[in-house]
Structures are given as C-alpha cells and as structure tokens.
Specification:
alpha/beta; 2 domains; three-stranded antiparallel beta sheet; elongated
C-alpha cells in the first residue's frame, strides 16, 4: 500500500480524500497543523511515500514547508492549492515540488499523479514495502503475513525500523527498549537481533534488512 501524508487545513476535504484514495490502495494521513506535520515527517523519515501539500495554511506558508521538506527529506511533493498566482506554481517547482494540482480537482487525477511520481522516483512500477506496522495492535507483517514477535523483539524491531538508514548503537537499544533489562550485557542485544532476523527471514551471513555495523550497533534497510 502506498503511504501518503498530506498537510491540509480543510478537514472535510482531507476526510473525503482519505476515503477515496483508500479505494486505490493509498493510505492517507493528514495534518491540519503544519508544524505537527513537519515534526512527524522528520520523526518518520522514510515511512511515507509521498507528500501532498496545500499552500494556504494558517500557521506556516506552504512554500516554506516545501522548501524545508525538499532540503531534508527525500520524498516526492505534490503541491495542491487554490492559489491562482502562476508565480506560486513556478516557485514551488523551483524549490523542490515535483508536481502541482490546482483546486478544485478530480481526485482520480490525484491518484494518477501520485502513482506517476512514485514510478518516476523509484525508476520502476510501484513495489510495495515488505513490512507493515500497526502500532495500535502491536502487529508487524512481512509480505502480508503476521510475524510472531515477543514484546522485546517487537520493540527492538520498531526502533530499528523507525530509524531506518541510521546506525542504532547497543547502548541506545539497552537504554530505550523498555522490555529489556537495563543491566543486560551487549551480547543479549545480538541474541535478540539474531532471533528477529530468523523470524523475518533475514540471512545472518548476508542480511538484507538488519545489518551489523562493527563496533557500533545495527542499521535497518528496506527495499
């Protein structure tokens, strides 16, 4: 499923789009507050596939958000706005937006633009990510199948996944995984990683997802 994030202060539009896009296998998360949206985008860098951004927002101008996101996060951006000023469109595209759709628009057009951008960014037809996470139910799925994880395994996997692309040290793991004893020795982290690798089908000799960084800790990769 494609994971889209939107910053749009019109709640009614957001709710209608969420329902419509879901029919096309696009999961939409909307933020009416721009600051909150930026915070989540930074915290969950890599978890979203595309950003749909309104230009006219009550707290931060959409063009400023576009500039900030394009500089720090690798995510396709579609500007969605009722602004008729041609200069806004040009500016948006120049500072990092990948596409522009003028309001009001047919939501089917938005679906087509989302799919087109993702194909262009990946260089291939959209390939779904292997892992799905439901934090409310504490469920992790790989290729649609639920992985049977203990509480400590779940929490460690989630920590690595949320920080994909970054090295997570053993000390950080021991200090932040609540279900592990703080006094645990480093080796217990390695054992837990080994169990997770086995359950997600990750070859310990040539891991695809969880890679060891000698002397530091671990790094999670996806796709």
């Amino acid at each position: 499923m494609i994971k889209a994030v939107m910053i749009e202060d019109d709640k009614e539009i957001a709710e209608l789009l969420k329902e419509y896009l879901h029919r096309f296998n696009i999961d939409l998360t909307n933020f009416e507050n721009a600051e909150e949206g930026l915070k989540v985008l930074n915290e969950k860098n890599g978890e979203f596939d595309i950003l749909i951004l309104d230009l006219t927002l009550p707290d931060i101008d959409g063009l400023e958000i576009c500039k900030t996101v394009s500089r720090s996060i690798n995510i396709p951006i579609i500007i969605s706005s009722a602004r008729g000023d041609y200069s806004d469109i040009v500016t948006g595209l120049e500072i990092g937006a990948d596409d522009y759709v003028a309001k009001p628009y047919n939501p089917r057009e938005l679906v087509a633009r989302i799919r087109s951008l993702i194909r262009r960014k990946t260089g291939q037809k959209s390939i779904p990510k292997p892992f799905e996470i439901d934090e409310t139910k504490m469920i992790i799925k790989k290729d649609g199948e639920t992985i049977d994880l203990t509480s400590a395994e779940y929490e460690l996997f989630l920590t690595l996944y949320k920080n994909k692309g970054n090295v997570i040290t053993r000390d950080f793991i021991l200090e932040n995984i609540k279900t592990m004893s703080y006094e645990s020795i480093d080796r217990s982290v390695d054992v837990l990683i080994g169990r997770i690798r086995k359950k997600i089908g990750d070859d310990p000799k040539n891991p695809k997802y969880i890679k060891s960084i000698r002397g530091y800790g671990y790094k999670f990769y996806e796709n």
